[in-house]
Design brief:
By secondary structure, the chain is an all-alpha fold. The protein has 5 helices and no strands.
């Protein structure tokens, strides 16, 4: 996969941001017994279930086919989506605005970088991936019905 210059720059910027978020999250006290914690816990569980589902589909789908079932039916990037949800849940459960800003910045960089991955998948899987892209949201949503030609 040939990486674009933008992808390389974004990867260079997002990796330290992600490592900072992980390190900072270890020291964040959770706001146990508050509404913040309850909301964060629900979002965390959603992210965890999505991550497990996507990982299972990723591992069980033949390598020469695009993954289009399970969590991949509702998101073209469910592993990234799950990771962002999990980090957002930590920021919410700890009521840390700093952490939420870092996660949002990382999410924006991630959104820009997935274009190279999608271009690679289009090259590898061709029309099957194009059809999948037309019917499945990039991040999270209800799949659209796609007319076959």
């Amino acid at each position: 996969m040939k990486l674009s210059r933008a992808y390389k720059i974004i990867s260079f910027l997002s990796m330290p941001l992600w490592l900072l978020a992980i390190t900072y999250s270890v020291f964040l006290p959770l706001k146990l017994g508050t509404l913040w914690f309850a909301i964060g816990l629900v979002i965390y569980l959603l992210g965890l279930v999505m991550s497990i589902s996507a990982t299972i589909k990723f591992a069980t789908t033949p390598i020469n086919e695009p993954i289009t079932k399970g969590a991949y039916r509702y998101s073209r990037h469910p592993l990234y989506t799950a990771l962002v949800l999990i980090y957002l849940s930590v920021g919410i459960a700890s009521a840390s605005w700093i952490f939420l800003v870092v996660v949002i910045m990382w999410g924006v960089l991630l959104n820009i970088s997935v274009a190279d991955e999608e271009r690679y998948c289009l090259e590898k899987y061709g029309p099957a991936y194009h059809e999948y892209m037309n019917g499945t949201p990039r991040w999270l949503g209800i799949p659209k019905a796609v007319k076959s030609e």
